[in-house]
Amino acid sequence: MKFFKVLIKFLLIVLGFFVVGTIFLNGFFYFTEKRHIKTVEELENEDCDAILVLGCSVYSNMKPSPMLEDRLRKTVELYQAKKSKIIVSGDHSDYYNEVEVMKNYLVDAGIPSSDIFVDHEGYSTYASVYRARYKFGVKKVFIVTQKYHLFRALYIADALGMTAYGTASEGDNYKGQFMRDIREYIARDKDFIQCIFLPKNEGNMDTVSLASDGDATDEK
Asked: Which of 43, 81, 101, 191 has the least CB density, counted as fewest CB within 10 Å?
């Protein structure tokens, strides 16, 4: 019985450190990166190598979810102001394809297909930013996603030596946002550790020049 009491106390201490650490890290991400979140108008005098739009869920009818559609709308707005190359990065598995939906939406909105590069292996925020840096050679990037997600994406970009700004694609309250926020708090812990060690991405890292034709990246 005494052993179990000691074990419970130990687990509570560990949990306490985890909770306190998570709160501290979330505050650290916020105060470190909030100055890098800009409106489209505030970015008019900034240049970039590419706009990176992070993937999100799509429906079986090949339509973007509300969160992803808001990201794509903001990307269109940013492209119209900057005329920069775009990288759409997301999950492209055997029977699931975020990036095709993303590119089709942007093309339908009037963006030249050749200006849109496809990263088929953006399976996580870290992977998407890492691959933008090392697969596509991006050193200065504008990242498009929801504000709660931008803090982590921008922190990763900073850790990888990129100059990064973020543009928030806010819409109405999204279903399940509370649980999404909880998951994000934990994901920041994970990516804080990744940004210490900066592990290499194990996917296809054959380099792609943004001076080439984006259509050449359509196929996985």
From this structure: 81
Separation between Cα atoms, residue 70 and residue 72, nearest integer Å = 5
pTM (2 decimals)? 0.91
Give the span between the Cα atoms of 9 and 144, in whole angstroms: 43
- Which residue, 110, 33, 118, 103, is CA-closest to 71? 103
Q: Where does 98-155 show beta strands of DSSP type E?
A: 116-119, 140-145
Using CB atoms within 10 A of its CB, is residue 35 exposed (0-12), middle (13-18) or buried (19+)? exposed
Return the closest-CA partner of residue 147 out of 62, 30, 44.
30
**pLDDT tens by residue, 21-74:** 566 678 878 889 999 999 999 998 899 999 999 999 999 999 999 999 999 999
131, burial (CB in 10 Å: exposed 0-12, middle 13-18, buried 19+): buried
The residues pairing with 54 across neighbouring beta strands, listed in sequence order, are 89
Residue reference for tokens 């050679």? 137
Select from 61, 55, 83 the least CA-distant residue to 143: 55
